[in-house]
Design brief:
The complex is a heterodimer of chains A (158) and B (702). With 158 residues, chain A is an alpha/beta fold. Chain A has a domain of 103 residues: Nucleic acid-binding proteins (OB fold (Dihydrolipoamide Acetyltransferase, E2P)). Chain A is built from three helices and six strands, in the order αβαβββββα. Chain B is α+β, with helices and mostly antiparallel strands and 702 residues long. Among the domains of chain B are: 251 residues, no CATH class; 123 residues, no CATH class; 107 residues, no CATH class. In chain B, 63% of the residues lie in helices and 10% in strands. In chain B, the strands form three sheets. A four-stranded antiparallel beta sheet of chain B has the order 2-13-12-11. Chain B has a four-stranded antiparallel beta sheet with strand order 3-4-7-8, with no helix packed on it. Chain B has a four-stranded antiparallel beta sheet with strand order 5-6-9-10, with no helix packed on it. The longest helix of chain B is centred in the middle third of the chain and has 33 residues. Classes of the chains: A alpha/beta (158), B alpha+beta (702). The interface between A and B is large, with 75 and 86 residues. Strand 1 of chain A pairs antiparallel with strand 1 of chain B, so a sheet runs across the interface.
Chain lengths: 158, 702
């Protein structure tokens, strides 16, 4: 028995399946700045990576902004009628998948990707928690003996 | 010196002992002096004590609240349950590297201990120093990563990075430092990780990845020593089975975790890290089968070395993927420097085995050939090729965004349907060959015999497959046919998978019946069966694993093709009828109550079926407010699942922004529990196969 014959057959089948798959289901990935700089608005489904910079509504339908990682001044507005992911925190990395409505300047997402929480260390979490009130690196300490006041349950709208 | 300093120094001692092991083993080889090899053995065992000591030091830090240590500060707090303090060891990057090194150290010591019994075996004695060298090199790599770039004992005060200085300033300005300048509490383990799966899934995965080091070390030792016969296979086949069991457990437990926590009704999304856990499983499965060919036919020695090297490569590949940032994943770390280390380690893992296999090419050439496709070895080999093809496909698709970015300057990702399109046909072929293989004999089997062995099982499998499809279909549709969930495009391929799965089970049952019949002439059927499965525990354990595989295949197909999903907006007290005769009664009021660190919001739902109460569930949202050291607000979602044998009723809820009630996402997953039942069968079968029963134990010839 020649092993080469079935191996070649499997290889051909595999290549055929992969080509068919990626031709049918490939989704272009862009950074926010790339999307905004594109001469013609990309058609169809795309995936955009950035940083969650603002949350207008944390309840459905979600309404938020995603900034470019390298240039935070480049921002897109995203609307998404999906559930709020558990690690949906300002300053955290985020990717949104959906379509870009260039005319309205709105990205209509049907999927949101956030990271597993084990990937964030204390500094990242501090940044997320204090993004609305930047830390002033001064030596004048208010020094309350206990922690910062406990926040009331949020309705998610910031 | 504090105990944390002491533990930190133990990691350096461990690194030193790795170097010492390499030096001693090399001297033993050069001077052909066994005393140096024995010293290397002791050095390896001492290294295990050192790294276990270092890990205990970090765990002690979690329990004693040593929040001056940055890693402990980042992943723990005083209020967290004790088992999560223990699990803190693997909750983040730096600790997980130490955890990896600790398991590796323990395994290295066990292997060294086993060599004490091999002192009189000429091949064992030849391989021993090489095995120590390989182990010490792998361990040394992890210790270097720990010492130079991912130190879990790093003190907050010693981290000079800008972000850490900002953190310290914040703590100081808000009165969160003690007079000694240390935080009085930790920032807390993220609530999402405070889940019982956290305590068991990661250790299983790490144990799997680490256990693959044993066969790899033996394989490289065999190539270096020129002892490429089946000795190393015999020494490592139980190890690879143990690694494979951990791997299987890790994958399924991770899937269960995702299913119960993430709220999208599924358990597998082809994320790069999920793929990374699956890749060594595929190649490890291939290896488990191909070693049988080498043992029985003295063939495929080179292929087995390749598979072991590939499996070990894949066990490191996942770690590289998440640490390098080359692909985006929910499990990707922000830090890139560790990824560079792992990248170079992977280069070594390609170059060294490739060179050694090429160097020993003449030795590895087989004297035997596979004469016909109608033999067990041919089917095993073809199945091996399919498994490697699936591996290559998954690697290619996982790296596709990186490759397209590199070569086309525009990254393109692929989603779940692409993986399914590419992998499903290959899985179908694999299942069919799994059904056919065990019924074949070695060397050659007459086609007529194969047809005779398969005809009966195939005839029985057809109606069973049809019944299974009907069952899944009817569970979902119930009496209401207005919303078809599966189209004909899904029905035919899914029928083939279910048929193949049933063929695996019926052909194995037929084989067992024939074996029992031939034995039961002299004893009762039950006694004959017991004798068979005990004497040939490796083979029959494997059959139980195949039953598990078939059960999982049916569970996956039925729960994905016939899955029912609907999203509905309801108000408090509203009644809603859904497909299948179920009625949801939403409670009049939601339950809001503080529960320790979080505020729980639960929506009570009474489920009726056929006019009678069916179940009561309470999907939940948890809100963790900011506190002194918990810097950010956090939300988590607790899915409610009403389980039954035939289906899971899975509910997830969201508040609506305008305050008019809730949106419920409802899934009905038919036969999904077969996936978890199949996992149980696989684990049971694997353990049975690994037990030291069998012919040798009762004094019969193997």
């Amino acid at each position: 028995m020649r092993v080469a014959a079935p191996a070649i057959l499997i290889a051909i089948g595999l290549i055929g399946l992969i080509v068919a798959g990626v031709v049918q289901g490939g989704i272009p990935e862009l950074q926010v700045a790339q999307l905004l700089a594109a001469d013609t608005a990309p058609r169809g489904t795309i995936k955009v990576h950035g940083v969650l910079s603002e949350i207008h509504s944390g309840e459905r339908p979600l309404h938020f902004e995603v900034a470019d990682k390298a240039d935070p001044s480049r921002v897109i507005v995203v609307k998404c009628d999906r559930s709020r992911p558990d690690t949906f925190q300002k300053t955290y990395d985020i990717a949104v998948q959906g379509t870009w409505d260039a005319k309205e300047g709105v990205f209509v997402a049907n999927q949101i990707f956030t990271k597993c929480p084990s990937k964030y260390e204390a500094e990242d979490r501090l940044k997320a928690g204090t993004v609305d009130g930047p830390i002033e690196p001064t030596e004048t300490s208010a020094a309350p003996s206990t922690a910062a006041p406990v926040a009331a349950p949020s309705d998610g709208v910031e | 010196m504090t105990y944390i300093d002491f533990a930190r120094n133990l990691t350096r001692v461990s690194l030193g002992l790795c170097v010492l092991t390499i030096v001693l083993a090399t001297l033993g080889l050069l001077w052909k002096d066994r005393r140096f090899v024995f010293a290397a053995r002791n050095s390896q065992i001492a290294g295990a004590f050192a790294v276990v000591g270092a890990s205990l030091g970090l765990i002690a830090g979690f329990f004693m609240g040593d929040y001056g240590t940055k890693y402990i500060f980042s992943y723990s707090e005083s209020k967290v349950d004790p088992y999560y303090k223990f699990a803190g060891l693997w909750a983040g990057l730096d600790g997980s590297i130490l955890f990896w090194a600790m398991i590796l150290g323990i395994l290295a010591a066990v292997v060294a201990w086993q060599f004490r019994r091999e002192r009189d075996h000429p091949i064992g004695a030849r391989l021993e120093p090489y095995v120590y060298i390989v182990f010490a090199l792998v361990q040394g790599f992890f210790f270097m990563v720990m010492v130079f770039v991912a130190d879990p004992f790093l003190q907050l005060a010693d981290d000079l990075s800008h972000s850490n200085q900002m953190l310290l300033t914040f703590l100081r300005n808000n009165g969160l430092l003690t007079p000694e300048g240390l935080p009085a509490d930790g920032a807390g383990l993220n609530p999402l990780l405070q889940n019982y799966w956290m305590t068991i899934h990661p250790p299983m995965m790490y144990a799997a990845f680490v256990s693959y080091t044993v066969p790899f070390a033996y394989a490289i030792a065999a190539l270096l020593a020129g002892e490429v016969g089946s000795y190393w296979i015999r020494k490592t086949r139980r190890w690879i089975l143990i690694a494979w069991l951990f791997n299987t457990n890790g994958i399924i437990l991770g899937s269960l975790w995702a299913y119960e926590v993430l709220g999208w009704g599924g358990y597998w999304a082809w994320d790069p890290v999920e793929n990374a856990s699956f890749l060594p499983w595929l190649t490890g499965t291939a290896f488990l089968h191909s070693v049988m060919i080498q043992e029985r036919r003295d063939m495929l020695a080179g292929w087995n070395f390749f598979l072991v090297a590939l499996t070990f490569f894949m066990s490191i590949f996942g770690t590289f993927l998440t640490r390098s940032g080359i692909v985006s994943s929910v499990h990707a770390f922000a830090s890139g420097s560790v990824g560079v280390w792992f990248g170079w380690f992977l280069v070594v893992l390609v170059v060294v085995p490739a060179f050694l296999i090429a160097f020993r090419y003449r030795m590895l050439r087989s004297r035997h050939t596979i004469d016909t496709y109608f033999s067990r070895e041919a089917i095993f080999l073809l199945n091996n090729l399919i498994l490697v093809a699936i591996t290559l496909a998954v690697v290619f698709l996982t790296l596709y965004p990186y490759l397209t970015n590199k070569f086309l300057s525009r990254p393109i990702s692929v989603s779940v349907p692409v993986y399914n399109l590419v992998c499903t046909p290959l899985f179908v072929v694999m299942l069919l060959m799994t059904a056919v293989g065990p019924g074949m004999g070695w060397i050659r089997t007459a086609p007529r015999t194969i047809a005779r062995n398969l005809a009966g099982p195939a005839i029985v499998s057809l109606p069973l497959a049809a019944f299974t499809q009907w069952l899944a279909f009817s569970v979902i549709r119930g009496g209401d046919l207005d919303q078809p969930v599966a189209t004909s495009a899904h029905l035919y391929p899914s029928f083939i998978v279910v048929f193949a799965a049933w063929l695996i089970m019926t052909s194995l049952a037929w084989e067992v019946i024939r074996a029992v019949r031939s034995q039961s002439k002299t004893r009762g059927a039950a006694s004959a069966l017991l004798r068979l499965v005990t004497l040939n525990n490796r083979r029959y354990g494997g059959y139980i694993v195949h039953y598990g595989l078939a059960t999982i295949a049916i569970g996956i197909v039925c729960s994905s093709v016939y899955r029912y999903n609907t999203e509905v907006q309801l108000e408090k007290g509203q009644r809603y009828e859904i497909q299948g005769g179920y009625v949801l009664n939403v409670g009049e009021g939601e339950i809001d109550e503080p529960q320790g660190a979080y505020i729980s919001t639960r929506v009570p739902i009474e489920i009726e079926w056929g006019g009678r109460p069916y179940d009561r569930v309470e999907p939940e949202k948890r809100f963790y407010p900011k506190t002194g050291y918990r810097f950010e607000e956090q939300h988590t979602t607790e899915v409610a699942i009403a389980r039954s044998v035939s289906e899971d009723f899975y509910i997830y809820f969201d508040h609506v922004a305008d305050g008019r009630g809730y949106i419920f996402n409802i899934y009905r997953n038919p036969l999904i529990n077969l996936v978890w039942f199949g996992w149980f069968l696989m684990i049971f079968g694997g353990i049975w196969a690994a037990l030291p029963l069998g012919r040798r134990r009762i004094g019969l010839a193997d």
